[in-house]
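Long-time lurker. I teach an intro course on protein structure, and each term I like to show students one example going from raw sequence to a predicted 3D structure in token notation. This year I'd like something fresh instead of my usual example. Would anyone be willing to generate the tokens for the chain below so I can use it in lecture? Attribution to the forum is fine with me.
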Amino acid sequence: MLLAAALALSGCAAFEDAHPGNPATQGRNFDAAKTAALTAPHDFNGSLARDYYAVASQRARDQDWTDSDYFARKSLAAAGGETMAPEHAITVDNPPGLGPSEVSSVVANSEEPHNWLIPGNGDPGAGEPAIMDNARANLVAALDRGGRAKFPTVAARAQALYDSWLERSEHLGAAAFDGDARQGFLRDYTDLVVLLDRPAMRNAYFDYGRATLTATAQLQIKEAAALIKDGTAHLKIVGKADRAGQAGYNEMLSQRRAQAVRDALIANGIATDRIEMAWTGETQLPVRTKDGVRQAMNRVVQMETQMPASQVAELPE
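-- Reply from a regular --
Happy to contribute to a lecture. Here you go:
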């Protein structure tokens, strides 16, 4: 009866307004969610069904039957075609801010905790819940701009990880705020935004005969790094030089320029294995010129954002 009632609820209100997990129904709902997830389509809802089942499995391994039941029922609803919004970190009837020990005592004594007892949610304008609420708004915007339809696998994983971030923060307090769930959410949300709004090529320009970064070049590098830092996208950088001077010297100059940009990207938090570096000297230039001509547009390192195949491919894991 509980399962039937849950599936009969329309829209996302059933899962936004309360947190009605029930240990008594966990086994039945968990088994049903597994069967439904295996046969769910490979669209957003089907992917979300599989990801919510994965969360339910993790909670079951921890013997957290309440939350396991909750996410199993969310998995069932998604498999049945219900499109759900991400959970809310801040709701009007959340209790005042609680410390981690207080949260643990409340959850331990409640079979059906309502909403998310996240430390600090009594002050919706500050603290961790405010950061979570802002992250939710950004995620919803990306989902509504075509994320669900165009990139269902990445979009669904981002939503499930966001919800898991809230759930972990309820149980572990501040210790979970920057944990695996949040890092996973940031990764997939960042990739979703990059996939939706593929960044244009950025250019770091250099002074004549120099491989020293200008202030403008440093800003371009910083912005290019910020767009992908939390995700998995790579940057392909290609150094170039104009046709003034000897070809051999320009080859080395373009390499030094590419190395300068690479070093700056690393300093801005991009791992070395996410940077592909090349240089072409005075060949393959943006602006064609005669030999010996100085051209400011050719004294450049081009930075192109590329997604790895593992994220581009819309295949179920």
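Some talking points for your students: The first strand starts at residue 202 and ends at 205. Residues 84 and 316 are 19 Å apart (CA to CA).
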